[in-house]
Amino acid sequence: MKINTAEFIVSNSDVSKCPNEPLPEYAFIGRSNVGKSSLINMITNRNSLAKTSGKPGKTQLINHFKINENWYLVDLPGYGYARVSKSTKETFQKFITDYFERREQLVCAFVLIDIRLEAQKIDLEFINYLGETEVPFCIVFTKADKISRGKVDQHIAAYRKKLLANNWEEMPQHFVTSSTEGTGRDALLSYIEEVNQGIFKNQGFV
Ligand code: GTP
Ligand code: MG
């Protein structure tokens, strides 16, 4: 899919104030600093559409970006930064859980995982939360440029093992990306295009 237009529409912390058009949207979620905003810029081929930072906690609101006039990418704040781990519910900000529980336009969450790290408790908790909430999701491994190709495969195999040990029956659909090298862009865009086509063929979904 070619990106012809990518425009920032609105930021807010209230799901009821998100754009109310019936257009499919894809949300990026994951720990602070994992590379959500960078990946949105990489996918859209825009340097600074979404704001990025070397310091965690940059994105603070729900940000809607309209792509090609007919679908949305959504940048969300990260979780797990400077927050004491309490119950799962309290760990994730209320407006984020509201977003996942109430946003009808959301067709897929991309859960970003730093490919370099061992499976983190907070990510597994969030993945389980999405499962319980019945939100469709894919896993997106980030920062693949930081390790060798062989290590990438090893880390994915270890992640799969961890998910199976956490009662998942199979590894969800996953992508390997690097925002600095453009890795995974075509695969992600093809996936989104395919899902969008299914939705538009059925003349909408909400
Ligand atoms: P919050 O908004 O704070 O939750 O963070 P975020 O997940 O949006 O991360 P962001 O995109 O701001 O990136 C965090 C840091 O990681 C920045 O310094 C980026 O340049 C760096 N980064 C992101 N993606 C990649 C990548 O694929 N490779 C490398 N080498 N660095 C990356
Ligand atoms: Mg961000």
UniProtKB/TrEMBL annotation:
The keyword Hydrolase does not apply. InterPro entries: G_ENGB_dom (IPR030393), GTP-bd (IPR006073), GTP-bd_ribosome_bio_YsxC (IPR019987), P-loop_NTPase (IPR027417). The keyword Ligase does not apply. Its cofactor is Mg(2+). Necessary for normal cell division and for the maintenance of normal septation. Belongs to the TRAFAC class TrmE-Era-EngA-EngB-Septin-like GTPase superfamily. EngB GTPase family. This is Probable GTP-binding protein EngB. It comes from Flavobacterium subsaxonicum WB 4.1-42 = DSM 21790.
